[in-house]
């Protein structure tokens, strides 16, 4: 994972991202038959949104992330029984031991996926599981159903970012002309996992969002992280706030959170 990927984004992440539904914890507990025992490993934990949500289901938890500032943000709002480590996923197992569950939420596609899949398989205890928390939190669902405020103007925001940074999506020090990689199932099967089993979590919660929160959501993204704008950061933010005022003079927006799926893989034998 490129350590510059989210440079400058950490302080915006918690305010800018929609929360994961609390039902994620319930569905994981019931779907995996969790009983409070074992340990959780959250890989690419960011500021710890998923780690803190799921940690009460386990005896203890470890969150790891390649971005030092993300780890520091996680430590500021930590809970008992959670350890935070500044660590690239490719550096696992790093003496962390074994785990009942390893989770990846909006992070696996940034990693050396074949390598990390193999490394984490060796860290799962017998009967353990890899869980991909599949869902986006930087924006809600598009739709025409009535909301208490306008939806954030995501298309206009995207156009503004492209005006400043160019038409090809940026990610840290790299460009992503084809977007992030697909084919996760092939990677997991080749690394020796069986599955997947999908455990759905119904979304639909409406979140009211201030203009400051929408600005934070933009700066929480890899393709519009603050460092990418360099000396034009303040200018970009002024233009962004102008776009938001045009879309909602009150300064308030609303979004309906989308569904989430927990994609469960079990360790087996790697393909030869």
From TrEMBL:
The keyword Transferase applies. InterPro entries: Diverse_substrate_MTase, Methyltransf_25, SAM-dependent_MTases_sf. Residues 41-128 form the Methyltransferase domain. It is an enzyme of class 2 (transferase). GO terms for biological process: methylation. Gene3D superfamilies: Vaccinia Virus protein VP39. This is Class I SAM-dependent methyltransferase. It comes from Phytohabitans maris.
């Amino acid at each position: 994972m490129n350590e510059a990927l989210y440079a400058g984004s950490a302080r915006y992440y918690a305010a800018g991202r929609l929360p994961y539904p609390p039902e994620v914890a319930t569905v994981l507990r019931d779907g995996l038959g969790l009983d409070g025992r074992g340990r959780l490993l959250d890989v690419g934990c960011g500021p710890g949104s998923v780690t803190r949500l799921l940690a009460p289901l386990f005896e203890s938890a470890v969150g790891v992330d390649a971005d030092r500032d993300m780890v520091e943000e996680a430590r500021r709002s930590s809970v008992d029984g959670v350890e935070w480590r500044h660590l690239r996923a490719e550096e696992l197992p790093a003496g962390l031991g074994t785990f009942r569950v390893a989770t990846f939420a909006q992070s696996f596609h940034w990693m050396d996926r074949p390598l990390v899949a193999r490394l984490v398989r060796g860290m799962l205890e017998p009967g353990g599981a890899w869980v991909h928390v599949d869902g986006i939190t930087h924006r809600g669902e598009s739709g025409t159903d009535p909301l208490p405020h306008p939806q954030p103007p995501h298309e206009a925001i995207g156009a503004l970012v492209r005006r400043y940074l160019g038409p090809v999506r940026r990610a840290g020090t790299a460009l992503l002309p084809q977007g992030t990689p697909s084919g996760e199932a092939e990677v997991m099967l080749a690394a020796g996992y069986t599955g997947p089993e999908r455990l759905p979590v119904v979304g639909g919660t409406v979140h009211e969002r201030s203009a400051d929160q929408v600005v934070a959501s933009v700066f929480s993204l890899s393709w519009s992280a603050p460092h990418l704008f360099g000396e034009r950061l303040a200018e970009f933010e002024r233009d962004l706030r102008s776009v938001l005022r045009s879309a909602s003079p009150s300064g308030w927006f609303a979004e309906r959170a989308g569904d989430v799926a927990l994609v469960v893989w079990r360790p087996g034998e790697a393909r030869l």
